[in-house]
UniProtKB/TrEMBL annotation:
Pfam families: ABC_tran. Gene3D superfamilies: P-loop containing nucleotide triphosphate hydrolases (3.40.50.300). One of its GO terms (molecular function) is ATP binding. This is Sodium ABC transporter ATP-binding protein. SMART domains: AAA. Keywords: ATP-binding, Nucleotide-binding, Transport. InterPro entries: AAA+_ATPase, ABC_transporter-like_ATP-bd, ABC_Transporter_VariousFunc, P-loop_NTPase. The keyword Nucleotidyltransferase does not apply. Residues 2-230 form the ABC transporter domain.
């Protein structure tokens, strides 16, 4: 099956920061999470998927096509929920709807109104009067209303209360159920990705550090804890570690873990995505 998004040798410089020779794929029919610390290049990658950023080298293919030849066709097949507000604050939601709908031949008003009702978004309110969370709800309703094949979301659950965050995750999971639709989801709330993501792309310092299934990434390390005295005796090659007077906690590559460690007084457990982000972000 053809990847829904493909980066081939993508490079982009922005001041002192550079994304260097980035190559990865987003698989069709799945939810892919894009993770990494602040300033790692996530936003640049997402903007490039929408052709809002052009590469200095390499290319980005969406649906197997290049924006250089089929920009309008590609964008009509994408729903986009971005972290920043890109609506006109002086317009009402209904007025904004008319503008957005004009760009999509497949726009479905009944789907749009159904989501607004489900989300409790008032159509007659001006966009500028809405809270950040309500604007996100409106953006999600608009993104889904033209029934896109690909949903690209940048921090969609930031500013949302936990109840609605859970509802958004359910909507995303339902959206891909037919196996034909795909989601690229970037967020700092790694617990959301842990709940619904199938694949993970991990970017740090402008380079791709991991791309593969979520389970594969979680199985790459063990989170180990123990008393400080064990550190000098064991000399473990941690990917990252936190030490206090009471003990240590660190991320150990799975190939260096053995059951003998637990017999020596070390507690071990499978890490979360958050653990992996925290303990590996200091690497080069």
């Amino acid at each position: 099956m053809m990847p829904i998004i493909e980066f081939r040798g993508f490079s982009k410089r922005n001041g002192d920061f550079r994304l260097e020779d980035v190559s990865f794929q987003v698989e069709q029919g799945y939810i892919t999470g894009l993770i990494g610390p602040n300033g790692s290049g996530k936003t640049t990658l997402i903007r490039s998927m929408m052709n809002l950023v052009r590469p200095d080298a390499g290319e980005v293919l969406v649906f197997g096509d290049s924006y250089a030849f089929k920009e309008r066709e590609i964008k009509r097949r994408i729903g986009f929920v971005y972290d920043e507000d890109y609506f006109y604050d002086h317009l009402t939601i209904n007025e904004m709807r008319k503008i957005i709908a004009s760009f999509y031949p497949s726009w479905n008003d009944s789907v749009f109104h159904s989501y607004l009702k489900q989300f409790g978004v008032p159509e007659k309110r001006k966009v500028g009067d809405l809270s950040k969370g309500t604007k996100t709800k409106f953006a999600l309703a608009a993104a889904l209303a033209h029934e896109p094949e690909l949903l690209i979301m940048d921090e969609p659950t930031s500013g949302l209360d936990p109840v609605f965050r859970r509802e958004v995750l359910s909507i995303i999971s339902e959206y891909i159920r037919d196996g034909e639709r795909s989601v690229l989801f970037s967020t700092h709330i790694s617990a959301d990705l842990e709940r619904i993501a199938d694949y993970i792309v991990y970017v740090r310092n402008g380079k791709i550090r991991f791309t593969g299934s979520k389970e594969q990434l979680l199985d790459t390390y063990m989170l180990v804890k123990g008393p400080v005295g064990l550190l000098e005796r064991m000399k473990l090659p941690f990917a990252g570690m936190l030490q206090t007077a009471l003990g240590f906690e660190g991320l150990l590559p799975i190939e260096h873990y053995s059951e003998e460690l637990t017999g020596a007084g070390v507690a071990a457990e499978r890490p979360t995505l958050d653990d992996i982000l925290v303990y590996t972000q200091g690497g080069k």
